[in-house]
Specification:
The chain is about 65% helix and about 5% strand. It has ten helices and two strands; from the N terminus they run H-H-H-H-E-E-H-H-H-H-H-H. The mean pLDDT is about 80. The protein is mostly helical and about 280 residues long. Strand 1 and strand 2 form a beta hairpin.
Length: about 280
């Protein structure tokens, strides 16, 4: 089973960046994407996200499964937006250009399609940044970097453990799945989709219990070693800030400011091509 969303050591400039640098980039990038509805800004951000993601040399097997689930959720979200608020685009842009009437008050308009297109862009803009941050950041180095900039090591270590145990949870999932298949439960692609979904449900409880057992073991081990007793601690995987870290942060901050200026230039965060 290919490990999904797991860190792999590679010789790229993105991997050599400090974990804090990548975290700050990810946070500013996500905040900009969440706030802005300017299509021009979002398209530029999407293009840059894909370029940076390509530079990280991330393999499809590392993110493919999660990407498919996100795309499924995105489709459901877009349908739900239209179902619960079919006139949202008209309210935002102040015009109404009907394209096709479905039934009742459900009419497909250019404004609604454009609004949902922007929602889709916001998803697609953030996804590469999330993947890049997770698969290019060493969990131990990330915790050390956070502590170095003043964040308490308890917080940094908690986030490091969360990242580090993603592959372990996947291994547990694979073992439980193989055990179920050995008992005659078909869970491969040969089985019908609905049947596979039902079979997957039988994995959830063993996976939850095994994860809780691992949490208990780790917490007891940390407590026995006196974790949290001292205010400061040393780190084996600490990575100092270098020139590329400072350059990345400067460029990220400047881009964020430029994106906000363009977005709010006319007093609204929505780009309106209909007026």
């Amino acid at each position: 089973m290919s490990r999904v969303l797991s860190y792999e050591e590679k010789d790229t400039w993105i991997h050599r960046l400090s974990g804090v640098t990548k975290l700050i980039f990810f946070l500013l990038w996500s905040i900009t994407s969440m706030i802005s509805y300017d299509t021009r800004v979002l398209i530029v951000m999407l293009a840059l996200s894909l370029v940076i993601f390509g530079m990280s040399r991330t393999k499809w097997r590392q993110v493919g499964t999660v990407f498919k689930f996100i795309m499924l959720f995105l489709c459901i979200n877009l349908i739900a937006i239209f179902f619960f608020s079919p006139g949202q685009g008209t309210k935002i842009y102040g015009t109404e250009t009907p394209l096709y009437h479905l039934f009742g008050h459900y009419t497909i308009t250019k404004e609604q399609l454009f609004y949902e297109f922007n929602v889709m862009l916001k998803y697609l803009t953030v996804i590469p940044a999330v993947f890049m941050f997770i698969v290019t950041t060493n969990p131990s180095e990330f915790a050390a970097s956070m502590n170095k900039v003043g964040i308490h090591y308890n917080i940094g270590y908690s986030m490091a453990i969360a990242l580090r145990y993603i592959p372990d949870v996947q291994d547990d999932f694979s073992k439980i799945k193989h055990a179920q298949e050995a008992r005659g439960i078909e869970m491969s692609k040969k089985a019908p989709f609905v049947s596979r979904i039902k079979s997957m449900a039988s994995i959830i409880f063993p996976l939850v219990f095994s994860s809780m057992d691992r949490i208990d073991v780790v917490s007891n081990a940390m407590e026995l070693r006196g974790f949290g007793k001292h205010k400061k601690r040393t780190w084996y995987s600490a990575r100092p800030f270098r020139r590329n870290d400072y350059l990345t942060l400067i460029v990220t901050v400047l881009f964020t400011l430029a994106a906000f200026i363009i977005t709010f230039w006319d007093g609204s965060r929505f780009y309106n091509p209909f007026v």
